[in-house]
Amino acid sequence: MAPKHFLDIDALDRKTLRAIIDLAATIKRKGRVPKSLGLRAGAVLAMIFEKPSTRTRVSFEVAMHQLGGQTVVLSPQDMQLGRGETLADTARVLSRYIDAIMLRTGPHTTLIELAANASVPVINGLTCQSHPCQVMADVMTFEELKGPIEGRTIAWIGDANNVATSWVHAAVRFGSKLRIASPREFAPAPELLAWAEGEGADIEVGEDPLQAARGADCVVTDVWVSMGDGDEKKRSAALRPFQVDGAVMAQAAKGAIFMHCLPAHRGDEVTAAVIDGPQSAVWDEAENRLHVQKAILAWCLATGRRGAGSLATGSLGRKRGRAKRRSGRANARGGKR
Q1: What angle do CA 60, 145, 127 make, to 5 degrees?
Q2: For 133-283, CATH number?
Q3: Alpha carbon distance 164, 183 (integer Å)
């Protein structure tokens, strides 16, 4: 049987993603994983970090331990991978020792190559292209606080980075509306928008943060300079008008929430008054990484015994909408993750 990888939100259908979110909510509410999932006691997760981490490292490690498993934390310097051993060989060897692999890396191609050669599940802990575990936690957080996300409006303000890409994927799969405001040079890749439009998503892209936030149920942002980004001064200057402040939140719907994947830089992408204010959901959002990742691990590792059928891959029930772009949007850049 082929391993069940968790590589991207767009790689799974709506039924599977919904089952994972629902299981995460159940785990959080009950404080345990249903025994009916058939998880093997003592399973081992290898966590490979090519990029530093706080939330991903701690939440995955705690999640695996709370599931009754163990973790092995690795970096390229800990392995022959750092001395030229191929990814394919590394994947094949690790697959003989452990039950799943979580990778936090730069190039998305590294993740794909690892998964292609592993005979155990591979989980995307972050790449320069996407951050699906984070956005699954975001969807869970939204639904805890605001109810079903389908048909609701999410505003993304700032750099359309890897987290924004996963939000585009989520808008398609969960049927939410997405409004993106970003500078021309940091807009979503055209091929990503073309895919979303082809899937019937309701997505708008522009350069006005106030317009994007108008009527939104949730406003989301991220740092201006991510790991690996160059020219910090140029990026900061371009993104300064896209700071999420009180004026932006005032445009959102009554009771709207604010989310940020963290770490945050108060005074840059968000003001202290917003992230530390009553509309902020960032601490619930951070906590929910733990619960969502338990559910992802359970989905990847479930043996299929009675009760695991709820986590089986099913058909996608798509919500068809319309995708449009604001007329003022200039050509989007490609390659920014």
Answers
A1: 35
A2: 3.40.50.1370
A3: 14
Q: Is the pLDDT of residue 228 over 80?
A: no
Please list the active-site residues. Answer: 104, 131, 134, 222, 261, 289
Q: Check if the beta carbon of residue 244 is closer than 8 Å to that of residue 271.
A: yes
* Cα radius of gyration rounded to whole Å, the chain: 19
Q: Which residue bears the tokens 């981490």?
A: 53
d(CA 167, CA 174): 10
CATH 3.30.70.1170 fits 9-130+288-310, yes or no: no
DSSP labels for 78-130?
Answer: GSGGGGT--HHHHHHHHHHH-SEEEEE-S-HHHHHHHHHH-SS-EEEEE-SS-
Domains 9-130+288-310 and 133-283 share a fold: yes
Of residues 207, 197, 239, the one with CA closest to residue 222: 239
- CA 169 to chain centroid, in Å, comes to 9
Look at the pTM and tell me if it is higher than 0.85. yes
Amino acid at position 334, single letter: G
Q: Is the peptide bond before 263 cis (omega within 30 degrees of 0)?
A: yes
**Domain boundaries, given as residue ranges, for the chain:** 9-130+288-310, 133-283
The whole-angstrom separation of Cα 24 and Cα 279 is: 23
pLDDT band of residue 337 (cuts 50, 70, 90) is very low
**DSSP code, position 334:** S
Pairwise CA distance, residues 33 & 35, whole Å: 6
- The answer to whether the CB of 265 falls within 8 A of the CB of 144 is no
